[in-house]
Amino acid sequence: MSTEIPVDRLELVALREKVATLSEENAFVNDLNDDLTWKNGELGIENEDLKKSLALAEERQKRFFDYWRCAEEELTKQMELNKELKQQLEAEKAKTSSAEQGEKILLDVDDLAANTFPSVQNNQ
Length: 124
What we know:
single chain; rod-shaped; mainly alpha
C-alpha cells in the first residue's frame, strides 16, 4: 500500500501562482534575449562597417605618409643639389675674381710702365 500525502489546497494554489510567475519571467527573459540577439546582429553589422572604415582610414594614412616621405626625400635631394650648385657658383666667382684681379694687376703694371717709361710705350 502506498501512502500518498494529501496536497493541501493552498499549496496547490501557491504552486500554480509560482508556475505562472515563472512563465511570465521566462517570457520576459526570452523577449530580452531576442532583443539582445537582434541588437547583437546590428552591432555585428556596425562592427563590420567600422572595420571597413578603419581599413580605409589606415590606407589613406599610409598613402598620405608615403606621399610626404617621397616629398621629403625629393626636397632633401633638391637641397643637396642647391648646395652643390652654390659651391660651384662660389668657385666660379672666385675664379672670375682672381682672373679680374690678375687683369687689374696687368692693367696697373701697364699704367705704371706707361707713366714711368712714357718713351717706351710710344715706341711700341
